[in-house]
Amino acid sequence: MGRVEMMILVMAIAIFGRYSLTVNDALAKNEIHVLQSEYELNAVSIVEGIFRRAGLNYFDENTVSGIPRSIPDDFTAYGLLGPETGESYPDFDDIDDYNGLSLVDTADNGMTYILSVSTGYINTSDKNTFLGVRSTLKRMDVTISSEYLRNDITLSRIYPFWK
Fold this sequence. Notes:
- The protein is of the alpha+beta class.
- It has one domain.
- The chain is 33% helix and 20% strand.
- The protein has a 4-stranded antiparallel sheet, with helices on one face.
- The chain is rod-shaped, with a radius of gyration of 26 Å.
- The termini are far apart.
């Protein structure tokens, strides 16, 4: 083998080596994105479970025994939203019992997530701001964080009062 062939062979090996490193880097980044998506999907699934469980409850503590006379004035005052004495998760009976809830949940894959829940009254014209007064709409915000997530995820669900 002559010098020219040897130089071509060395250049081909160098080019192939560079190509291999680029492909390996792309595969590694793709794997990171796949894992990150899995962690985010698990987080959303956990939050959806909280929303479903809350949706099975009464709208307000004052609707547990029937429809109050004056709506929304007979609903729980804004400053009293949260679990009543003796209630604890998961045995809540109304939506606002979740207000102030903090818990740690572990997904099936062993990843640990920290959840923080806020619940409050909102109105139809401004669904982004909690009201300091009673209304026929409650919004639940669940923020979930984990060392496995790039950022905290906050999801919201609106619950209307149904007669």
